[in-house]
Model the fold of this input.
Amino acid sequence: MKKILYLCLFLVIAGNAFSQEKNAVGNVGPVKFSGLMFGDLFYNADAIDSTQRDVNGFNFRRIYFTADYTISDQFSARFRLESSIANGSNISVFVKDAYLQWANIFSGSNLVVGVSPTPAFDVSESVWGYRSLEKTIMDYYGIVSSRDMGIDLKGKIDDKGILRYWVKIGDNSGNKPETDKYKRYYGSLQITPSSNFLVTLYGDYNTLAPKKDLNNSATVFAGFVNYNAGKIFSIGVEGFLKSQQNNYTAPGGTSPESQSGYGISIWAKSMLTNYLGIVARYDIYDPNTNSAANNDKQNLIIAAVDLKAASNISIMPGIEVRTLEGKDHNDIVPRITFSWNY
Done:
């Protein structure tokens, strides 16, 4: 933990020094530092894994430290560290974002190079707005990584920005170094016909290494629809289909066949006052629709009250329930989630 604190202190001091130097010659503005922290006071009232029943305590799930810097009118950069706890392990720190953006490389389009978000659910996660409660469905089930090392081109198709596109070629290695020759090709289209209606269409092709000399590549298609009336009410529906070639051999079978899965997420939220909001969500996920694949369907239920201590501080009493087909127990976690940004 001391190493983390020393690194953050170094970044702050170095960033301030660098920004002062740039201001002195009048080129650009200072480095902008920001952060996000969220976690829970939780109690595992029940659990699919019997060893996790009655476990309780305080837990930080995510800590972000971000530095944004405008190099010139056309160039900007972001560096973000993430600290997280995975599977009960110690707190780890890794590079979440590290990219350079070239704005208006041609009219209305930006080029991004480095470790950056993927087009899969960047929009839906932003509209969902409760990453502190849970990831969006494709992120939660690991269908597509939230980050990838690669090159992106994104921007407006029309002058008003009603149609927006985003294409990316990535290593498909997330935040890790590349170890093979296979790549992932992403594409999305965002349609905003009005201020309170939004649609995204997404697809990717993942050229994975063969299994036993058979093609194991995968495709994902997804869509997201949102209707919002400002803070008064917002509802979103997100769904995806995933197909992977030669990835499943049925019990008693002799040769692999394509594996198909799907997921659907429905959520709604409302700010009843400036200091009180409510949010609820229901997910369905089936990783393999083959009738021979049993005991793999899952459901996720989330419900919470959002108490705003300030505009950027939330305290959210709620509950998360996960069911797994064929199990006698469910993951039932009452919790108080805390989240703040700066």
User: Anything to note?
Assistant: Residues 2-25 form the longest helix (24 residues).
